[in-house]
């Protein structure tokens, strides 16, 4: 019988917190092991019910920031360090894994050095291009350079790590994955299309993600009138919440397409794969804004797993999620003209769209199932 793998995982982001990173760690570590995997994470609404039947050992702590502390996250560091060190002294872990470089990575490095275990830190990309405050930046660079192993989620993130001076032989490229039991073609979608007033012959563009400017959802809204002028009868549904909700609604009103833009907010988990199936094209023409980038884009893989062609921006790490001209198209997300051209190419050529969708689905099932990601993770530490 194989020896069980014993890891201490330190991550603020973990289910039921929403977001791709939280899903990533939940999916991987429950496949790696059982109660011998200890996860230190934030106490959030719904955590008690979620943890009750989780295969791993979950340790929840309050991780609120306090404005009157300098830095505001000082209490977070203290709480993460206290709980993590106690667990590391009580258990003989094989390694310590940190979900992000700060605060988790720096805390994990301290604990790892005290108990003489290797430290693995995840890099997501956007933190490297946006964190420019002197102290925070220096702490980030120190942690990445002194980690025993750094997991980069994309080629883009790996290149950014190299620019920081992280040695190439310390970087492992492991992208997040997809639950192929949930996300796959052939799901029933008629009721979803009816719920937003789609006729049988109308097209649907879908986006999923936080409603923030860098995602490029505004470019898709701006493209709708042009698509309609070109004879493409299309609606646009967006799943997600965020600061750009009112901006997108206003943009749709000004463009005269409010009846065709559907801001769905959160949807129940069982419906998310069905919405991907209901769409003709998945679009997230992301762009860089003030250094803020898309580090990878799990949503592209979810769409591909459902057999859908995808439209991505060229900024950030989307090239690891979307193979341009194979599983979809990557366009200049800053150019409304390029976004329109890409959408016309996918919506106006069902044969090409079907080909991209089929290639994407095959790639995801072969390379990005969570079981494959867990195997890669196990292979490094």
Protein traits:
single chain; Rossmann fold; six-stranded parallel β-sheet; alpha/beta; seven-stranded parallel β-sheet; 381 residues
Explain how this protein is built.
By secondary structure, this protein is an alpha/beta fold. It has two domains: 7-174, Glycogen Phosphorylase B (Rossmann fold, 3-Layer(aba) Sandwich); 190-367, Rossmann fold. Helix content is 43%, strand content 15%. The chain has helices spanning 20-32, 47-51, 74-90, 101-115, 126-130, 134-146, 155-164, 190-195, 217-229, 245-254, 272-278, 298-305, 336-347, 350-367, 370-380, and strands spanning 7-10, 38-42, 57-61, 95-98, 119-123, 149-152, 171-173, 203-208, 234-239, 261-265, 281-284, 310-313, 328-331. Strand 9, helix 10 (245-254) and strand 10 form a beta-alpha-beta unit. The protein is globular. The two termini are 19 Å apart.
Give the structure's gist in a few sentences.
The protein has 15 helices and 13 strands. By secondary structure, it is α/β, with parallel strands linked by helices.
| Number of spatially distinct domains | 2
Class of the largest domain in CATH? Alpha Beta
Based on the coordinates given, report the CATH architecture of the largest domain: 3-Layer(aba) Sandwich
- What portion of residues belong to β-strands? 15-25%
- Residue-averaged pLDDT, rounded? 95
How many strands, what sense, and barrel or not for the largest sheet? Answer: 7 strands, parallel
- End-to-end Cα distance, whole Å, is 19 Å
CATH superfamily of the largest domain: Glycogen Phosphorylase B
Question: What is the name of the CATH topology of the largest domain?
Answer: Rossmann fold
Instruction: Summarize the amount of helix as a percent range.
Output: 40-55%
Strand order of the largest sheet: 3-2-1-4-5-6-7
* N-to-C SSE string, H for helix and E for strand: EHEHEHEHEHHEHEHEHEHEHEHEEHHH
3D shape: globular
Question: pLDDT under 50 segments (min length 5)?
Answer: none
> What structural class do helix, strand and pairing data support?
alpha/beta
Q: Count of helical segments?
A: 15
Number of strands: 13
């Amino acid at each position: 019988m194989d020896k069980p793998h014993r890891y201490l995982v330190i991550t603020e982001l973990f289910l039921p917190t929403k977001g791709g990173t939280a899903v990533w760690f939940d999916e991987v570590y429950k496949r790696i092991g059982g109660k011998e995997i200890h996860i230190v994470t934030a106490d959030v609404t719904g955590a008690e019910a979620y943890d009750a039947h989780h295969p791993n050992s979950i340790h929840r702590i309050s991780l609120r920031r306090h404005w009157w502390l300098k830095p505001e996250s000082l209490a977070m560091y203290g709480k993460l360090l206290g709980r993590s060190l106690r667990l590391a002294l009580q258990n003989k872990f094989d390694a310590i894994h940190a979900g992000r470089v700060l605060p988790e990575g720096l805390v994990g490095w301290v604990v790892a050095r005290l108990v003489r275990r290797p430290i693995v830190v995840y890099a997501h990309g956007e933190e490297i291009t946006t964190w420019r405050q002197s102290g925070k930046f220096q702490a980030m660079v120190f942690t990445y350079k002194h980690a025993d192993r750094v997991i980069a989620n994309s080629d883009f993130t790996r290149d950014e790590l190299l620019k920081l001076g992280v040695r190439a032989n310390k970087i492992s490229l492991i992208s997040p994955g997809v639950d192929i039991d949930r996300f796959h073609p052939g799901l029933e979608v008629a009721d979803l299309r009816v719920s937003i007033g789609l006729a049988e012959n109308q097209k649907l563009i879908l986006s999923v993600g936080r409603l923030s400017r860098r995602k490029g959802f505004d470019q898709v809204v701006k493209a709708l009138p042009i698509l309609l002028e070109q004879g493409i009868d299309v609606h646009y549904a967006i799943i997600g919440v965020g600061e750009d909700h009112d901006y997108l609604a206003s943009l749709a009103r000004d463009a005269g397409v409010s009846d065709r833009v559907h801001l769905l907010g959160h949807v129940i988990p069982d419906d998310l794969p069905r919405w991907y199936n209901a769409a003709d094209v998945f679009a997230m023409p992301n762009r860089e804004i003030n250094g803020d980038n898309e580090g990878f884009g799990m949503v592209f893989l979810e769409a591909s797993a459902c057999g859908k062609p995808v439209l991505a921006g060229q900024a950030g790490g989307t090239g690891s999620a979307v193979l341009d001209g194979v599983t979809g198209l990557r366009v200049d997300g800053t150019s409304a003209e390029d976004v329109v051209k890409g959408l016309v190419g996918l919506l106006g050529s069902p044969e090409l769209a079907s080909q991209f969708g089929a290639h994407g689905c095959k790639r995801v099932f072969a390379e990005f199932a969570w079981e494959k990601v867990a195997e890669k993770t196990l292979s490094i530490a």
